[in-house]
Amino acid sequence: MTSQRTLNRLFVLHSWAGIVTGLLMFIVCFSGAVVVFKNEIDLWANPSLAQLPRSDKPASLDAVLTQLQTRYPGATVETIALPDAINPSYFAFVRERGAPASTRTKVALRSDTGTVVGPVDSQLGQYLRMLHVFLFFGPRWIVGFLGVAMLVLIATGIVIHRKILAELFTQRWGRSFRVVMSDLHKSAGIWGLGFHILIATTGAWMGLAPLFEQGTKYVTTSANAAAPKPARKVASETAAPVPMQSLDALYATAQQAVPRLEARYVSLRRWGTDTAEASFTGNLSGHLVSTARVDINAATGAPKKVHDPRTAGFWSLVNGLMEPLHFGDFGGLALKWLYFFLGMTPAFLSISGTLIWLDARQQRRREAEATQGLSTNGAAAAG
């Protein structure tokens, strides 16, 4: 049986954890609920793209790359996004000649012919995802710590509201503002409890696991820091271009290396040089886990690095499950709506918890002022 003193301490921890993280928690949870519809939002923000034809047999990757190089001569094609169940078009991220190193142009291409349609006007869905994952410009571990804070709030909330199940269907609409909000706060917390644990755990994992991985690599490789590193070969700008393998042939090689790979993105690095690479990243057909990736030398066609989460070990499999479970992009439209509505509940909890705390604080101030007033009046009467 938890003592009253422990309950009071947990209540203080619960309150202050919510107040300190409340604003960021609301931003992350609200944007996370909305970003479930990232692709739909991008199409809505670019209505002309939704009108483009969807092809049952999309144009080849080679045709797409040729169209981009013809339309943007001298530009660097960095990424090609393939059509999917929602987006009927190819997309590409291009760094044009003379543009700042951080500036990319998102270009849409017809899926049937690979013809360049033009730059995409709005990337609203991507901006919302950046807000949710990185708070626009922050490191991802900040959002990871918010996931830990959410787990703390869940655990302390369960303990301090021991009778929450008995009061689950209690909503006292005719009572004070704080009582009404408290009932709504408890109901939203318990109805979405399983989902909240899932979102907090997966969010904390994705935000903090890379941090721990980098720390582990730093510790394990520090002993070899003094070892001479091989000289990195730098391609000369005046060197003759090196013939590249066909992108479609490279994709076939990637699918041989990782059976049932459905590439969503193709990333090109140092294209036209003897160290050029093409990376195929995507999902595994009929498998929940994501994401598989194959890096191939684009000059020779030889695979350089293969990541198949099905064969990479237990923790790799767990890590691959985190993103689809967090974003709910492994099902259809019904699952997205479920994630949306449940995702709004932690955003509501951050608001309602803050309002309850502020109302309680004002109530204590009014009671203190009333007590002080009675003491003053009593002293005056006695005098």
From TrEMBL:
Alphabetical list of Pfam families matching this protein: PepSY_TM
- UniProtKB keywords: Membrane, Transmembrane, Transmembrane helix
From which domain of life does this come? Bacteria
List the transmembrane segments. 12-37, 141-160, 188-208, 337-358
Q: This protein is called what?
A: PepSY-associated TM helix domain-containing protein
Lineage of source species? Bacteria, Pseudomonadati, Pseudomonadota, Betaproteobacteria, Burkholderiales
